[in-house]
Write a structure and sequence with these properties.
The chain is of the alpha+beta class. The chain binds protoporphyrin IX containing FE.
Length: about 400
């Protein structure tokens, strides 16, 4: 890593294993010396400090899209479906779509999913508890969120593998510098996904069921409805976002616990810690590390290391959530895992208008899945014969390749 504090420039390859295997020491240095910096590999200004990331997430002067700004030149999305995605809209379109989707989402009453999620977790443990060694990521962390979101929407759970394949191919283009091959594969997957959903939505229109998809089809407020394109994009967003991050909180979280046996046994003996423990795992090894924003109107921002930075309209900036969650100005001993941490305003679910719509569902899954894992497998340990666990070469989505354990 090369950090030029005076010139506010950073050279750091996010695909260098020395960085992405453990980005937190680099973040520590950047936070200390230069928390607003031009990251050359990303070719944009990046914000690392908690206060600024939080402020920008909530600011209406920054947005996920320039589409609402008259005359603005905006970058074409790599995937056509993103054009109608809630995540890539700003008010007034965002307000309208979010209200319609949230209405249907809340109507599903997330808390009522508790018994189903518990049963699913127990069934998965039944299949692994007698094995000598097992990859916890493939057998536990991955199936939970994908089965839950598929069932919630009303998509057959036998399609889980197909949903995972489409999603993984699509999200690869959100990493830095996707290859032509990855772009082609992502577009092919998105086309297949859209084709499948168009047919599926058609069937649900004729034959509504008690599921989120039928509710989204029927969603109406003040005579307003989702268009067909919005409906398809929303289903894809929910299905992909519904599992891509949660799996990594279970995987990264389980590894963090196995590496901190004192915390692991503390949680086992104090189930009342579950809520704060899940929040701490979300913070400690942040599953989604970086999100971008467009500057919607010219502005000058204060730079904590000194001076100011001019940001003209149309500039793209990045917010490094993973670093903000380790900012010592906000978190006491950020590199320590403390399941009882009482002050924990982590930004793992974002903030402001785009605050994660699925946060209550993700929290519920985590508050069920991890305690069941700890309770059902009292001798759970890392399988040292499999070598040190390593993280995938996907900086944005921070997750393990595999997590080999002895149940
Ligand atoms: C631990 C798991 C999860 C994490 C860490 C996470 C994180 C995030 C973050 C950071 C954002 C905001 C992005 C931005 O501001 O640019 C977001 C948005 C979103 N998430 Fe999640 N998410 C998780 C699980 C879920 C689940 C389970 C669902 C769906 C069921 C979901 C659906 C969404 C949707 C629809 C948005 C877009 C909201 C909008 O633009 O208004 N997420 N998520």
């Amino acid at each position: 890593m090369k950090l030029d504090v005076e010139g506010r420039r950073l050279r750091l390859n996010p695909r260098d294993p020395a960085f992405y295997q453990d980005p937190y020491p680099s973040y520590g240095r950047i936070l200390k010396d230069c928390p607003v910096v031009f990251w050359e590999e990303f070719e944009r200004w990046c914000f690392f400090g908690h206060r600024q990331v939080d402020t920008i997430l909530r600011s209406r002067r920054f947005g996920r899209s320039m589409a609402q700004i008259e005359g603005a030149v905006t970058r074409e999305p790599i995937l056509e479906v993103d054009r109608h995605s809630l995540l890539d809209m700003e008010p007034p379109s965002h307000t309208r779509l979010r209200r319609l989707v949230q209405g249907a989402f809340i109507a599903r009453r997330i808390e009522e999913l508790r018994p189903r999620i518990e049963r699913l977790c127990h069934e998965l443990i039944d299949q692994i508890e007698r094995r000598h060694e097992v990859d916890l990521l493939a057998t536990y962390a991955t199936p939970i969120p994908v089965v839950v979101i598929a069932e919630l929407l009303g998509v057959p759970t036998q399609m889980s593998q197909q949903l995972l394949d489409w999603s993984h191919a699509m999200v690869a283009v959100y990493e830095l510098g996707p290859t032509d091959e990855q772009i082609v594969e992502a577009r092919r997957s998105a086309d297949e996904f859209v084709r499948f959903l168009r047919g599926y939505v058609e069937r649900r229109r004729r034959d509504p069921r008690d599921d989120l998809l039928s509710q989204l089809i029927a969603a109406e407020e003040d005579g307003d409805r989702l268009t067909e394109d919005e409906l398809i994009s929303t289903c894809i967003l929910l299905l992909n976002a519904g599992h891509e991050a949660t799996v990594n909180v279970i995987g990264n979280g389980a590894l963090a616990l196995l590496r901190h046996p004192d915390q692991l046994s503390k949680w086992r003996s104090r189930p009342d810690l579950t809520r704060s423990a899940v929040e701490e795992l979300l913070r400690y090894d942040t599953p989604l590390h970086v999100f971008h924003r467009w500057v919607l109107e010219d502005q000058v921002v204060h730079v904590p290391s000194g001076g100011e930075l001019e940001l003209p309209q149309g500039t793209e900036v990045s917010l490094v959530l993973g670093a903000a969650n380790h900012d010592p100005a906000v978190f006491h001993e950020p590199e320590c895992i403390d399941l009882a941490r009482s002050k924990n305003p982590h930004l793992s679910f974002g903030g402001g208008l785009h605050y994660c719509l699925g946060a209550p569902l993700a929290r519920l899954e985590l508050q069920i899945a991890i305690p069941i894992l700890l309770e059902r497998l009292p001798a759970l340990e890392l399988d040292s014969s499999a070598g040190e666990p390593s993280w995938k070469n996907t900086y944005h989505f921070r997750g393990l390749d595999a997590l080999w354990v002895r149940p």
